[in-house]
């Protein structure tokens, strides 16, 4: 009986210990189909069980889709795609499931053919088409189908990525999205601005998208730009103050998924950001860190958004700026012994840690990435300038007695004492395990870089340069790799 109770208690304890760590990953969900039609259908299932009206656009017509998305929102209609010449099977199935009575096709017959429209009609659905003589005109006509609004979003009609993150903003507020090109306001766009009585405008994109001359002709324009599509999307979310409780994430080069995802983000009162499909983009990491985003919905299956990106989003270190400080450098060798210089070992481990944190989704910054000397104050300044969330100084230990050996991690109590201690406690046992060294424990000491860095900070003494056994490990790439992995894992578990 007693042993039974013991097992029960241990397994309950295991459950209790297991749950918090599982919950501490960021929440990541994925919605996708086998192609753009399937993905749009799958997205519509997230909110619509039925829809009397649906909006259908050509799967290759991004401009039509962008202008249609805010209107679809206003009409409480899902946004679906079709193949140009034939109604796509996924869309046909979905229209039946939704018990749709009216389909609004946005775009002319070059985008959605008359045959496709007839196939929709054959389902007993009435079809209405909104189309103009070009993309500007179609967007203008869509705008006239929307409720009265005094503001519009303006984007270059030939650059699909610019407007995507503005779609939820336009949709939720009932603002139309109108197009220009880089150097001209099309007459259809000018006409829509006039007839709708637009008094102010949000311009999505830099001068490479819409130049200053066009910008200045728009009503009370405000420009939001970025150095690339990822930063532009992040800036739109940030500057338009869009909700970020559960952010949608899509491939910035996959317009169909991104636009349909943006339409759903609007419906869910959320926002959308973009990423490279294989690796979380730097600018995306920045907004994740800055806005402390921790819940995501990925739009599209692999390979549109890879499982690597999904794992990076899940990792709570995602978007965190981690300062890596490899101790010493140049004329300052640090400890010397057993044929190695501490500065070289620190740099080697630091570079490996940099690679691992990058792969984890963080934004690592190194105080030095080569054999350069920086003063301790310069190192502290680099952490402050980077706005680092954590400061990790990497060192090797030394003692006159060559018998002294083992691993220890230091923190200082001047700033962020509790957090620094917790960080040290996460890193220390993992480094001990990686190097199979003696555990000298977590300690406090007023080392300059951890005393004056205001963020949680630790100084890891990986092992003794002066001890033959410790040094033999620090000479080997495999141990340095394991040490870097251990520090990375310690940082990740600190955030869990
Ligand atoms: Zn040192």
Number of β-strand runs: 20
Give the strand order, joined by hyphens, for the main sheet.
16-13-17-20-18-19
Q: Name the hetero compounds present.
A: zinc ion
Point out poorly predicted stretches.
Answer: 15-21
How many structural domains does the protein architecture include? 2
Largest sheet: 6 strands, mixed
> Distance N terminus to C terminus?
36 Å
**Percent range for helical residues?**
40-55%
Give me the Rg, rounded.
28 Å
Whole-number average pLDDT? 96
| SS summary, helix count | 20
What general form does the structure show? elongated
* Residue fraction in strands: 15-25%
GO molecular function: N-acetylmuramoyl-L-alanine amidase activity
Signal peptide: 1-24
EC number: 3.5.1.28
GO biological process, one term: peptidoglycan catabolic process
Descriptive key words:
Aminopeptidase, 496 residues, alpha/beta, 2 domains, six-stranded mixed sheet, binds zinc ion, 20 helices, 44% helix
Write a structural description.
The protein is α/β, with parallel strands linked by helices. Helices cover 44% and strands 20% of the residues. The chain has two domains: 29-314, no CATH class; 321-495, Zn-dependent exopeptidases (Aminopeptidase). The chain has helices at 2-23, 36-45, 62-74, 89-97, 114-121, 135-144, 160-163, 167-173, 187-196, 212-217, 229-239, 255-267, 282-290, 307-314, 342-360, 376-385, 417-435, 448-452, 468-474, 477-495; strands at 27-31, 53-58, 79-82, 102-106, 126-130, 151-156, 177-180, 200-204, 221-224, 247-251, 272-275, 295-299, 321-326, 336-337, 340-341, 363-366, 390-397, 407-411, 439-444, 457-464. The strands form five sheets. Strands 16-13-17-20-18-19 form a six-stranded mixed sheet, sandwiched between helices. Strands 1-12-10-11 form a four-stranded parallel sheet, sandwiched between helices. A hairpin with a 2-residue loop joins strand 14 and strand 15 (340-341). Helix 2 runs parallel beside helix 12 and helix 11 (229-239) packs parallel to helix 13. The protein is elongated, with a radius of gyration of 28 Å. The two termini are 36 Å apart. The relative contact order is 0.09. Zinc ion is lined by residues 327-328, 334, 342, 395.
């Amino acid at each position: 009986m007693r042993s039974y109770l013991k097992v029960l208690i241990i397994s309950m304890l295991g459950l209790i210990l297991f749950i918090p760590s599982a919950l501490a990953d960021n929440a990541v969900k994925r919605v996708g189909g086998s192609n753009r039609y399937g993905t749009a259908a799958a997205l519509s299932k997230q909110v619509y069980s039925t829809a009397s009206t649906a909006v259908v656009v050509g799967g290759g017509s991004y401009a039509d889709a962008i202008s249609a998305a805010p209107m679809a929102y206003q009409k409480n209609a899902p946004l679906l795609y079709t193949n140009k010449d034939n109604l796509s099977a996924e869309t046909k199935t979905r229209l039946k499931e939704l018990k749709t009575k009216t389909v609004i096709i946005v775009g002319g017959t070059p985008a959605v053919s008359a045959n496709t429209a007839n196939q929709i009609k054959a389902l007993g659905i009435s079809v209405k088409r909104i189309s103009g003589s070009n993309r500007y005109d179609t967007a203008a006509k869509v705008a006239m189908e929307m409720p009265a609004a005094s503001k519009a979003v303006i984007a270059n009609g030939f650059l699909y990525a610019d407007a995507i993150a503005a779609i939820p903003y336009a949709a939720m507020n009932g603002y139309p999205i109108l197009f220009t090109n880089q150097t001209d306001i099309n007459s259809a766009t000018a006409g829509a601005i006039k007839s709708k009585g637009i008094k102010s405008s949000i311009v999505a994109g830099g001068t490479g998208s819409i130049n200053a001359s066009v910008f200045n002709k728009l009503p009370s324009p405000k420009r939001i730009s970025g150095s690339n599509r990822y930063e532009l999307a992040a800036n739109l979310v940030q500057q338009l103050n869009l909700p970020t409780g559960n952010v949608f994430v899509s491939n910035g080069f996959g317009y169909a998924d991104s636009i349909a995802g943006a339409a759903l983000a609007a419906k869910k009162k959320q926002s959308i950001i973009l990423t490279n499909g294989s690796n979380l983009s730097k600018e995306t990491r920045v907004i994740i860190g800055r806005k402390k985003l921790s819940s995501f919905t990925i739009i599209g299956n692999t390979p549109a958004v890879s499982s690597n990106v999904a794992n990076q989003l899940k990792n709570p270190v995602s978007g965190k700026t981690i300062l890596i400080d490899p101790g010493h450098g140049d004329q300052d060798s640090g400890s010397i012994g057993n044929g190695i210089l501490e500065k070289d070992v620190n740099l080697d481990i630091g570079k490996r840690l940099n690679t691992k944190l990058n792969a984890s989704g963080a934004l690592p910054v190194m105080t030095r990435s080569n054999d350069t000397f920086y003063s301790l104050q310069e190192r502290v300044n680099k952490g402050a300038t980077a706005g680092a969330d954590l400061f990790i100084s990497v060192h090797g230990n030394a003692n006159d007695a060559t018998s002294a050996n083992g691993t220890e991690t230091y923190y200082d109590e001047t700033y962020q004492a509790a957090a620094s201690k917790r960080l040290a406690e996460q890193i220390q046992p993992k480094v001990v395990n990686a190097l199979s060294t003696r555990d000298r424990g977590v300690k406090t000491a007023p080392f300059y870089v951890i005393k004056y860095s205001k963020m949680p900070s630790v100084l890891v003494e990986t092992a003794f340069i002066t001890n033959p056994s410790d040094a033999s490990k620090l000479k080997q790439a495999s141990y340095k790799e394991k040490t870097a992995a251990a520090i990375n894992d310690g940082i990740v578990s600190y955030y869990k």
